[in-house]
Write a structure and sequence with these properties.
mainly beta, seven-stranded mixed β-sheet, four-stranded antiparallel β-sheet, 11 strands, globular
Amino acid sequence: QVQLQESGPGLVKPSQTLSLICTVSGGSITTNSYYWSWIRQPPGKGLEWIGHIRYDGGTYYSPSLKSRTSISRDTSKNQFTLQLSSVTPEDTAVYYCARYGRGYTWDYWGQGTQVTVYS
């Protein structure tokens, strides 16, 4: 059973960089064919895909967030990270990490972590 767990600060000040870590257990982030995603849900809105890192380290970002987003990984710890720079209150959301699997859908999700941008 694959499990994902987000961790990181719950409060970030405007203009700072939001940094989150997703720790994966029960499966390797280097396993062929899987993509490891970051997704967020602002209050009162739907899910928004931020980007993902592929099993071989390739990255893909949402065009609307690409200029501020970086996703990286630490294979020795089986973790992948999200960095979102120059945050504003509009970046306040529940942030999820998830696995995009061979069924062309997100099949495993973390529980989500609330991040609030405040001054």
